[in-house]
Amino acid sequence: MIPVKNEDEIEKIKKSAHLLSRAFRSVESVLEAFVTTRYLDEVAEETIRSGGGIPAFKGYMGFPGSICASIDSTVVHGIPGSRRLQNGEIIAIDIGVLFQGYYSDAAKTYAIGDVSKEKKVLMEVTRTALHRGIKKAREGNHLSDISHAVQTHVESNSFSVIREFVGHGIGQALHEEPQIPNFGNPHCGPKLKAGMVLAIEPMVSMGNCAVVFDEDGWTVKTMDGSPSAHFEHTVLITSGKPDILTIEIEDRS
Ligand code: MG
């Protein structure tokens, strides 16, 4: 069963998402070449804890960081550490927050300094794929309409969708039903209802979709070494337009 949240629960997830957005803003304020990913992790954790929240990833199945910091060919679950960012790299930052019993989850990929045109295109295609998926997150649609919209956009740009990792429901747990693959035929799976909250998160490789785990047991990389990008929002299904609860992490312009 996919949980349907009541107004009180939705309000709490919104507060969690607001604190999550603040964590992104604080990371962005120090994000530049030569900074270590451990420092980004510390900045995020400090913002989350001082706002009364708990970093949702820290200790989750033993994950050591408050954020996932995934550079270039790392797809997801990069462990923060002594690695310094370099000009020309892209880094996906994924953060989860637990606030007053409710989770929120979002990810965004950033360019460090001057990055290649190809990497810029990869980031833009992934970001747009997320929004194509979100557009399908409407009451009455089927779950796989989201998956199909993401896949179609990615593949029409000659990139590939990572298949081993999926989006998920979110609320009282970090990962609730349903799983949301980033590929699939449309009009399949459960029908979406107002009150469902979904973390939609395309992970996209510039090359082949095959991935490998690092020896640390967490870090997931593209097998062919291609750069990859990751964007994620926590989204509320309503009777009308989808409500992107983590919209504050988008660029303000
Ligand atoms: Mg997630």
What does this structure look like?
With 253 residues, the protein is α+β, with helices and mostly antiparallel strands. The chain has one domain (7-251): Creatine Amidinohydrolase, CATH 3.90.230.10. It has four helices and 15 strands. The strands form four sheets. The protein has a five-stranded antiparallel beta sheet. Strands 1, 2, 4 and 5 form a four-stranded antiparallel beta sheet that branches. It has a three-stranded antiparallel beta sheet with strand order 3-12-11, with no helix packed on it. Helix 3 runs antiparallel to helix 4. 49% of the residues are buried. The structure holds magnesium ion (MG). Magnesium ion binds next to loops.
Global shape: globular
Q: Using only CA atoms, what is the Rg? A: 17 Å
Class from secondary-structure proportions: alpha+beta
How does CATH name the architecture?
Alpha-Beta Complex
User: Which strand order do you get reading across the main beta sheet?
Assistant: 8-7-9-14-15
Question: How far is the first residue's CA from the last residue's CA?
Answer: 39 Å
Which percent range describes the beta-strand content?
A: 15-25%
Please identify which CATH superfamily we are dealing with.
Creatinase/methionine aminopeptidase superfamily
- Reading the helices and strands in chain order gives HHEEEEEHHEEEEEEEEEE
* CATH topology (fold) name: Creatine Amidinohydrolase
What does the largest sheet look like?
5 strands, antiparallel
Give the strand tally: 15
**Stretches where pLDDT falls below 50 for ≥5 residues?**
none
Integer average pLDDT: 97
Bound molecules: magnesium ion
Number of helices: 4
Helix content: 25-40%
CATH class categorisation? Alpha Beta
Q: How many structural domains does the protein architecture include?
A: 1
